[in-house]
Amino acid sequence: MYYCNFFLAKGFVQCKLSDPAISECMRNELQRATPYLSKGIPSLGLLPTDPLRISSLTIDKGIGGVNLKFKDLDILNMRSTIIKDLTFDPKNFTLNVAIVVQKPIILEGQYETNGRVIILPINGNGTCRFTLDNYKSFSVVKMKPVLKNGITHLEVKSLDFKFTTSKMHLIMNNLFNGDKILGDNMNLFLNENWMELLNDMQPAFEKALSVAFISIAQEFFNRIPLNQIFID
């Protein structure tokens, strides 16, 4: 009922599971839903996806030996997402989707770090800002229908998520207990060697985002029966 009231009132349609062009239908409808989802849908209990809040994220020592902890990390500009490709297998309920984001992805929040970045020691805590240019991602979402209280809903079994960026810019404030010279030099070094830093950070970022996206999708599926998402 909520689905019909919210989506159909804004011109959205349900895709037919038997439609040979179901992938195209889903791509069009998800693209159309993006600006609404980014604001959140209180009637469905869906929180905003722009900004998307990650309450905590920990990156243990990787190849470079850096420890990073983030708190209250906000991810901005997801509303500018363009779905470039989408395929859906209605028999196995498997979704493959590739997106690009028209604006740079920005991550802002609190950080705490110690360890080594490549060859240099690093420590500090404070605010930070990471910017990802030309962000692209590819996701594989596996779902299954489940019966709950006599009503069939979708359940997310897994979400495999990978992203790429052409450039990462960053600034970490209050490095080395606020020593401006050391902090400025470290930020310069990090920006010049952003690929090495990203290699350490990326697996944890991808895992954290996968968990966040699963939570968002599952909250939606918990509230909306399968027969209100798709037409048989």
In short:
This protein has 232 residues and is an alpha+beta fold. The chain is built from five helices and eleven strands. The protein has one domain (2-231): TULIP domain (Bactericidal permeability-increasing protein, domain 1), CATH 3.15.10.30.
Walk me through this protein's architecture.
The protein is 31% helix and 43% strand. It has 232 residues and is an alpha+beta fold. It has a single domain, classed as TULIP domain (Bactericidal permeability-increasing protein, domain 1, Super Roll). It is elongated and about 65 Å long. The chain starts with a helix and ends with a strand. The model is unreliable at 1-9 (pLDDT under 50).
